[in-house]
Structures are given as structure tokens and as C-alpha cells.
Amino acid sequence: MSKRDFYEVLGVGKNASADEIKKAYRSLARKYHPDVNKAADAEDKFKEAKEAYDVLSDDQKRSTYDRFGHVDPNQGMGGANFGGGDMGGFGDLFDMFFGGGGQRRNPNAPQRGNDLQYTMQIEFKEAVFGKETDIHIPRTETCDKCHGSGAKTGTKPETCSVCKGSGQQEVVQNTAFGRIVNRRVCSACNGQGKIIRDKCGNCHGSGQVKKQRTIHVKIPAGVDEGAQLRISGEGEAGVRGGPSGDLYVVIRVKPHDFFEREGEDIYCEIPLTFAQAALGDEIEIPTLTEKVKLKVPAGTQTDTYFRLKGKGVPRLRGYGQGDQHVKVVVVTPTNLNEDQKDLLREFSRTNAENTSEQHQTLFERMKKAFLGD
User: Fold this and answer.
1) 250 bridge partner residues
2) Rounded CA separation 168/186 (Å)
3) How many alpha carbons fall within 13 Å on the CB side of residue 87?
4) Given this model, what pLDDT does residue 222 score?
């Protein structure tokens, strides 16, 4: 039976790069490996892909194959095929494609602890000016009885005799297509590489215990909603002498009844009477720290903003503070008595000429906008 073209076997073109050939072969190896695929023809397809890869992955063999095909010119017309020799070099094939082939993790190596997150809700002004407080968090810590070894006092863990401390067992299979080495988690030590004969009574062999930890937190002035404060080394304890993780404190800020915040600036609304807006006035404005005087000029319209420089939030990463922006809202009077109504009617009568002029000016502007005059 004639052999299929090696490029056809791998499903690549004759100009395929080395990476494309390797990728195609790995895909076929995973698909047809006898330990994975139990179909009757899986083993033959696997061997066919292996033979094609052996030739096309070697620059010299590939060049010869491109010129002479399946016939080896060094052996005349005997028809010796490329890549059909000993497959023992493929002994670690299963490792290579199913999780092996790289440097294995040392089960006894130190391991960093997990990070923790704590959500803290604070008042509006606490976010502005900062605060210091204590928080209480549950976390794992190294057992102070066995110092993290998990073994009873006076004893120590033993190196696993099955895996010799590697945490893995090797199962070797000699098959018709080569030597297969399959590595799996050691069943004797569960991948730890060590066995604890006498476990610590405090941590029951884990080397860690749960504790309530009190941590002093300094919240800087100017933090805002959603800010995260990182406290190094206050997370979960590390394993086998590894460093502890970190604690992240997430800030949630309660809304204020009067102030609103945008970045480093503060906003608020102040009501004005009709008389104050028309005649002008000096009013008292509350800020984050004190009350200040604000001069409102005569004729101020509703929704006018005034700026109080430097009365905002301290800049978290820099100098100075933001500003406070005061929006004035003219309040329409209600429940007027007759004397007040008479005064307004008199005002309306004396102001009629000026109002008519204002209306006429507005009409002219609208006319120009619509007619283009």
C-alpha cells in the first residue's frame, strides 16, 4: 500500500513553516493518541502523523523528501521510507502533549498566600479629610504550634518514598509505537512530596489556622468612591515559608445631604428669594470646614454658579484643593398676603414698559433665527 504525502497527512501546504508543521502535528497527536482515542484506526493514524512529523520537522530530511519523495536516495530504489526507524526517541510523547514537556513545579517550593479584599464604607467628609481606623478580617495564618510544617511538635514531615519528593508518579508503557511515559499526581502524598505521620493537633496537618486579625488602616485625605488601598503582607499566609498575600481595602463613600462631589470639586445649591436675586445680597454659604460670606450681585438669574476657590477636596496625589461651586436657585414665593400681592402688582405695572422692550427684543432675535433677516 502506497504512503500518503506527508504534507497531506499533516494537512499543511508545502510552504508551511516549522511552527505550522508543529502545530498541525500536535493537533493530530492529541486527536489520535491511543490513550485518548479508542477507535480501531487511531493507532495507525497516530503513527502516520508521527512519521510525517519526523521528516518534515527536520530541515535536512524535509529537503531530501521534497526532492525524492518517500524513496531514500542513500539506499537506492529499495524504498526505505523516511522516519520509519526506532521510535524510542518519542518516549516522553504523552508528557509533551498532555501537560508535560516543561519544567515541573516543585511541590515543596514556597508559595505566596492569596490576596484579600475588604469593603469599607465611610462618611462623605471622612473621604474628604481622611481617617484612621481599625478593621477586623478573618484570614489564614501560619500555625504557631508547628510553624507551618503541619507535623506534631517534635516531629517533622517525611519525604514521600513513592515519588521521592517530586509529588508525581511515572507510569511507563511500552507499546508497538514507542515508550510512553505518563506522569500523574502521586497517590501516596497527594502531590505534596511529603507525608506527615503525626499531625499537629492545632492545625490538623494543614500548617495554617483561621484567625481574626485586627489591622490599623490609614485612609488618606481625598479618596473617592471605588478607591483601593493596598496593604502589603496583610493577606492570607503563604505556604511552606512563602510570603503572605496583600490586603486590598475598597472604599465606598456615603452620599451627603447637601454636597455633591466631582473629582476634587464640590457642588451645592443655595436658594435665593426674588428680592435677593433682584436687589443683590450678601449670604452665608456652608463649606466643608466653615461658613463663608458670598456677595450676590443685583439681577442674578437662577442657575447662576459662583466659585469658592480652594474650598473643595484635597488633591490625593498633589498639592492644594479643588473648588466649591455654588448654584443659586431663585425661589418663587407662595402663599402671598394681599399687601404682598399689591406690591407685586405695582412692581409689574411700573416694570411693564421695560418688560415690553425685553419681549420685543426677544421677538426680534427669534425672527432673525427663523427667517434669516
Assistant:
1) 119, 228
2) 5
3) 17
4) 93
User: What does the pLDDT look like over 179-214, one tens digit per residue?
Assistant: 777 888 888 888 888 898 899 999 988 888 999 999
Q: When comparing pLDDT for 75 and 15, which is higher?
A: 15
Alpha-helical segments (H) within the chain: 6-10, 18-32, 42-56, 59-68, 93-97, 124-129, 274-279, 338-350, 352-371
Instruction: Compute the mean pLDDT over every residue in the chain, rounded to the nearest whole number.
Output: 82
The pairing of strands 324-330 and 265-272 is: parallel
**What are the CA-CA distances from residue 46 to residues 49, 50, 79, 85, 185 (Å)?**
5, 6, 22, 15, 26
Q: Which amino acid is at 84?
A: G
Which H/E stretch holds residue 112? none
> Cα dihedral sign for 345, 347, 353, 359?
negative
Number of neighbours of residue 335 by Cβ within 10 angstroms: 5
Name the 3-class secondary structure at 347. Answer: helix
